[in-house]
Amino acid sequence: MGHTVHLMGDSPIEKSAPIFVVAPPCSGGDQLTAGLGTSPGVLPLPRNDLAVAGLDRPPAVTGAGHRLEAGAATEERAASIRTWVDRRLDEAIEQPAARVLDSVRILSGMPRNSLRVGFLDAVFPDCRFILVHREPAPALAEAEALWASGSAVTEPDLPGWPGPPWSLPLIPEWATLAEASIPEIAAAQWQAVSRALLDDLEAIPPDRWCLTSYEHLIAKPEDETQRICRFLDLGWHANVAAPIRAAAGRERVNPTQPVRISETTERLGRRFTALTAEPAKPRRNPGAPAEGESPLRSVYTAGFPDLLERMGSSVLVSTYQSGRLICLRRDTAGLNTHFRAFDRPMGIAVSDERLIVGTRSEVFEYRNLPEAAPKLEPAGSHDACYLPRIRHQTGDIAIHDIEVAGGEAWIVATAFSCLATLDGTHSFVPRWKPPFISRLAPGDRCHLNGMTVVGDRPAYVTILGRSDEPGGWRKDKATGGMILEVESGEPVATGISMPHSPRWHRGGLWVLESGRGALCRVDLNTGELETVVEVPGFTRGLAFAGNLALVGLSQIRETATFGGLPIAEKRGELQSGVWAVDIDRGEVIGFLRFEELVQEIFDIAILPGRRFPEIAEPDSTAALNSFDLPAEAATSFSSPSS
Predict the structure, then answer these.
(1) What is the pLDDT of residues 15-31, one digit of tens each?
(2) What is the DSSP letter of 498?
(3) Is residue 480 part of a domain?
């Protein structure tokens, strides 16, 4: 979608990307769908229209219920659905009212879509999702009432089901709930849909989905629906907010009765809340959450802070999934975790006094101003203060690794399958691409993701598959990974399961074989990988200090991206955090593990010689009141001539 143009008189009408509103049961998705359906150019589909298109054929109920993952989007099935949608759009374009439109697009808020985000993404690669969440207690109370009333039945003749007629989406766990009460069924249903939404959407580029909360919609229906319409490139008028205002009136007349919720439900609710919450303003210890209270909490082995002490350094960790750059610092109490919010932070580069961070669409550069550190609170605690200096807009080019070579910041532009640098004029400057990539265009053809520098120039890169087709690397992701030499463009190692984070250390090449959860040495003569250690996570992010390797570990989502990997068999055992490895002995000697919100790590970097640095926010007192001038500035000023 988004490419077909139909002419109506002299004005082209584009068929734009479909919109899917998804939400846990009774969380406000229906109201938002009704409002968006009044926006010009939107063709709202009746609740079962996609079922008519063949989405639910064959109709026999399976153990998976309404759940469909990306792998179910066979070429034939996807083509059939797209053809059906095209016909509906053609019919809409032929209507006289369409003459004033620039584009038309379908909108679907069918509740079972919330179990099918990966599938819909595979069928419509440019579609947009709006996720609505609601505090679980009132959502569950409403769901229980719908179950009891029988007014939202979706599967009236569920085979072998002895309970009440099934209402709302049919979850994969439905068969295990045969003897459960309605409150137990509603809670299990809410949890299953919420997990599916959180996991599936985090696998989709963040510029293609937007999150809102029922509470925000009710509090400010005009403001929030305008924000959503801007995200979707839709026109807005008062009718878009009308269903939300009506829901707010019902809330005041008949307040939802609270229900008891389980720890699992509460934890999922906090994950939704954390995605919408604005970062807290720093207090005495900027950005560090209270242990045991925050979803950002972590635990660590007793010796982990001592490792930082012996290194005389601190460690930076990027976690794009939770939108944080984390600085691990040793303090008198043990380990201090210092958080800074970014939009999908990925690659980190440290060079002398420079700190560079790549995000979803920007590259941020910080400089250390040592003179500012003594002025920070608590007095005498900081030994470095990194202040924001440059903010470069690249657009969403899927920045992954960043390294400094020849004084320049080199970035891995994964969407364009190339290495690039930055200048003051362009989004980015392409400098190198694998020889099999035929043209410079977005599409993430080989998933070029990692880079290392040797001799002050990029030397090796990692790719997940040799492909010149958009997304083609996915076909052989389990074993199709390679390490390429930049100078020749030739592979030096092949058959790797999702390689990431190539690094040059002690005169040799190292890499993480993420699909196996392994840290490996690379034999450049034979192309063989020697496994140094396997750890309980999807490995990504690697930094060295002497015989110490710091390895990032991630949990993996239940999506097609991670399906078929060797490590997927251990899904329930996987951890998220930073593992410390003695590379001489091949042993894990400590770790920091995140307990809840932080589930995926991308990069790790060491700030050498900086034990307790501050990463200053742009509006902080340090950034506003610290000034760094050239040394000759005091004597080089002259009065302007008249």
Answers:
(1) 888 999 999 999 999 99
(2) S
(3) yes
**How far apart, in Å, are the Cα atoms of 157 and each of 57, 58, 59, 90?**
16, 15, 12, 36
Only one residue has tokens 């490590």, namely 567
Count of structural domains within the chain = 2
- E strands, 137-293, where? 153-155, 166-167, 209-213
**100 pLDDT exceeds 60?**
no
Evaluate whether residue 303 is within a structural domain: yes
Closest to 130 in 3D by CA, of 214, 20, 243, 244: 20
Q: Out of 304-308, 315-319, 571-575, which region has the weakest mean confidence (pLDDT)?
A: 571-575
pLDDT at 346 over 90: yes
Residues 200 and 83 in one domain: yes
Span 265-271, average pLDDT: 74
Give the range of the structural domain holding residue 422, as residue numbers without chain letter.
299-625
Interior angle at CA 580, CA 520 and CA 271, nearest 5: 100
Q: Is the pLDDT of residue 340 over 50?
A: yes
pLDDT attached to residue 2: 46
Give me the phi and psi of 63, to 5 degrees please: -65, -20
Cβ neighbours of residue 394 under 8 Å, at least 6 residues apart? 361, 362, 363, 411, 413, 422, 427, 428
Low-confidence winner among 51-65, 376-390, 399-413, 449-463 (lowest mean pLDDT): 51-65
- Between 29-36 and 238-253, two packed helices, what is the crossing angle to 10 degrees? 150
639 assigned to some structural domain: no
Q: Is residue 606 part of a domain?
A: yes
- Sorted by sequence, the CB contacts under 8 Å of residue 574 that are 6+ apart come out as 517, 536, 537, 538, 553, 554, 555, 556, 567
Half-sphere exposure of 544 (CA within 13 A, CB side): 19
Q: At what angle are helices 221-232 and 238-253 packed, to 10 degrees?
A: 140
Strand partners, 14: 5, 103
Per-residue burial over 24-63, b = 16 or more CB atoms within 10 Å of its CB, e = otherwise: bbbbbbbbbbbbbbbbebbbbbeeebbeebebeeeeebee
- How far is 105 from 122, CA to CA, in rounded Å? 17
Q: Which residues contact 239 (CB under 8 A, 6 or more apart)?
A: 35, 38
Average pLDDT over residues 417-431: 97
Q: How far apart are CA 271 and CA 341, in angstroms?
A: 16
CATH number at residue 88: 3.40.50.300
In 3D space, the residue among 504, 563, 521 whose CA is nearest the CA of residue 538 turns out to be: 563
